[in-house]
From TrEMBL:
The keyword Cell membrane does not apply. It is found in: Mitochondrion matrix. This is Succinate dehydrogenase assembly factor 3. Interacts with the iron-sulfur protein subunit within the SDH catalytic dimer. InterPro entries: SDHAF3/Sdh7. Pfam families: Complex1_LYR_2. PANTHER family: DC11 ACN9 HOMOLOG, SUCCINATE DEHYDROGENASE ASSEMBLY FACTOR 3, MITOCHONDRIAL. The keyword Manganese does not apply. Keywords: Chaperone, Mitochondrion, Transit peptide.
């Protein structure tokens, strides 16, 4: 493992822990459990990424972390993904996005 990747992984650990902490602090239990599982899966899936991939992965989670930090209440969660951004997603990412949308709809239907 390169030195750069070691530094990125250490940063990733802090981002991961901050996200879980903010989930506990700001999200209702239904969303928190869903969000925690999703975050853990994503970080697990990227353990073997190279430096460039992990850097891009971490950057996106840092954006999410910044959104969580600025969130005042649960009604503010998330934001619409632009069509331009959707075009940048690969097939696996589109599948994950669709699954996330379905699970979110199920969660909010229960309420």
């Amino acid at each position: 493992m390169s030195d750069k990747l070691k530094v990125l992984k250490k940063q990733g650990l802090f981002v991961f822990l901050d996200i879980l902490r903010l989930h506990r602090k700001k999200l209702p239990i239904e969303l928190r459990s869903f969000g925690d599982v999703y975050v853990k899966q994503e970080f697990r899936q990227h353990q073997d990424a190279n430096s460039r991939q992990y850097e891009m992965f971490l950057e996106q989670w840092q954006y999410y972390l910044a959104d969580l930090k600025s969130m005042k209440d649960v009604k503010q969660i998330g934001k619409k993904i632009s069509e331009e951004d959707k075009l940048l997603l690969n097939d696996d990412q589109m599948k994950t996005l669709s699954q996330l949308e379905e699970e979110t709809k199920k969660t909010f239907k229960k309420e």
